[in-house]
Amino acid sequence: RACDINTIPFATNMASAEILVLAIDRGDLEWRELIR
């Protein structure tokens, strides 16, 4: 719930964690700064 409120990415398994880390490394989550 805290992740939903604060728009923080959260991985619940190894596959999502790997995708999330790679997305952060590539800068795919930079759009979050535009929303704030």
How is this fold's topology laid out?
Blueprint: H1 2-5, H2 14-26, H3 31-35
Characteristic terms for this protein:
36 residues; mainly alpha; 3 helices; flat
Describe this structure in words.
The chain is mainly alpha-helical. The protein has one domain. The chain is built from three helices and no strands. The chain has helices at 2-5, 14-26, 31-35. The longest helix has 13 residues, at 14-26. The mean pLDDT is 76.
Please provide a brief summary of the model:
This protein is mainly alpha-helical and 36 residues long.
Largest sheet: none
Mean pLDDT: 76
> What shape does the CA trace take?
flat
Secondary-structure element string? HHH
Number of strands: 0
User: Helix segment count?
Assistant: 3
Q: Specify Rg, calculated over alpha carbons.
A: 10 Å
Give the helix proportion (percent range): 55-70%
As residue ranges, the low-confidence spans are none
Q: Which structural class matches the secondary elements?
A: mainly alpha
Count of discrete structural domains: 1
Distance between the termini: 18 Å
Strand percentage, roughly? Answer: under 5%
